[in-house]
Design brief:
With 373 residues, the protein is an alpha/beta fold. A 5-stranded mixed beta sheet has the order 7-6-11-12-13. Helix 5 runs parallel beside helix 6.
């Protein structure tokens, strides 16, 4: 189609960077360098909240600004405005089971966890489709499971190496063997490994995780560091205790680890976590405010079903199966786009949509109020 007759619209995913609420910083994809826009560029994007022909835009704005906004994907073709053609990560649920019952995880109340694993044939199909898609930074091998309990774990690593895919491994470390550590190192596919360490006090560690062998976990962490793996720590819990644990872990490990050791607040998994961590969030506005997670991450369960996000513990919001389509077609199916339209406020979201109970959506709502959005 002649570009002059092409309609353009501001991307529905265009958002103010939530870590710089009072600066003129904008992006679409998490991790992208925020772009500072001048007055004409901001006016152009406000002008295009409804589709406008390219030649009409030239009557109002400079071609330089129009070209720049198209280049950043802030301005996009109207007919494909809701499409996705890149992802940050794909989370693959290779198994169902976890051997811990952490107080900050919905697994603690689940008595029906089963030791099931994803078939290798399906796993290979997913990896092939990720490779064909061509713009995925890394994969993970878990949702709420412990991935190294998977009897095919070492095989999975070899397949990741074969497909030249990077892995971020989230683990409690309790079943991570020396052989696995060496395979992760030699494969070259490991980008980061995150150990779940909510306390450095053995008794408190057991209270939080339900797991008795604290020293075993710390020994595994030490071996991973000695092997040269890129070690990080997932430090969860109530704010005061979490900060104290963070301080203790920094004192013990910071000199051995090049990057800063950090922690982030524990949340209630969009209401799926009850008890002391429940945040009692219910967003009642008709239309929601957007969330980077649904455009940057894909979550695939053990059967190949794609579902909303990492907080969708019960996998209620599914939009297709990876076995039925390419990754591009799955992400841009009618069901997937309809779900994203609900998350981004184009269509009214039902009251039972998980996002209405999520702290990230609440933060986005507060941010938009701060900047007058």
């Amino acid at each position: 189609m002649n570009i002059q007759k092409q309609k353009y619209v501001t991307s529905p995913y265009f958002q103010h960077c939530d870590n710089r609420p009072f600066e003129n910083a904008w992006s679409i994809f998490p991790g992208d360098e925020p772009i500072r826009l001048n007055d004409e560029e901001l006016s152009l994007l406000r002008f295009c909240t409804k589709p406008i022909y390219y030649n009409q835009l030239l009557n109002v704005f400079s071609q330089e600004s129009i070209t720049k906004m198209i280049g950043y994907h802030f301005l996009t073709k109207y007919e494909t405005a809701w499409h996705l053609n890149r992802l940050q990560s794909v989370e693959i649920e290779t198994s169902k089971y976890c051997n811990w019952r952490c107080s900050f995880c919905p697994n603690k109340d689940n008595q029906n966890l089963q030791q099931k694993i994803m078939a290798n044939q399906l796993f290979l199909e997913i990896l092939q489709k990720i490779q064909d898609f061509g713009s995925v930074n890394y994969v993970t091998l878990n949702t709420y499971n412990e991935p190294v309990l998977d009897p095919l774990f070492l095989e999975r690593i070899q397949y990741l190496k074969k497909f030249n895919l990077k892995l971020i491994l989230y683990t409690n470390g309790s079943a991570l063997t020396n052989e696995m550590i060496q395979e992760l190192k030699q494969s070259g596919c490991l980008q980061e490994i995150w150990f779940n360490v909510p306390s450095l006090q053995p008794e408190r560690f057991k209270e939080i995780t339900g797991y008795s062998h604290f020293n075993k976990v710390i020994a595994v962490v030490n071996k991973a560091i000695e092997a040269g793996l890129n070690v990080n720590f997932s430090i969860q819990g109530q704010t005061n205790e979490r900060q104290k644990t963070l301080t203790c872990i920094r004192e013990k490990y910071q000199e051995q680890i090049k990057h800063p050791i950090i922690s982030w607040p524990t949340h209630d998994r969009a209401g799926n976590l009850k008890g002391e961590f429940n945040q009692n969030i219910h967003i009642k506005q008709n239309r929601l405010f957007g969330c980077n997670a649904v455009i940057s991450q894909l979550h695939i369960n053990m059967c190949g079903d794609a579902f909303l996000c990492c907080n969708d513990y019960f996998q209620k919001h599914k939009f297709g199966n990876i076995q039925d389509a390419s990754l591009f077609d799955l992400l841009n199916s009618e069901n997937a786009i309809f779900l994203r339209k609900q998350v981004y406020g184009n269509t009214q979201a039902p009251d039972d949509l998980l996002c209405r109970h999520c702290i990230e959506m609440k933060r986005q709502m507060v941010l938009l109020k701060l900047i007058g959005g």
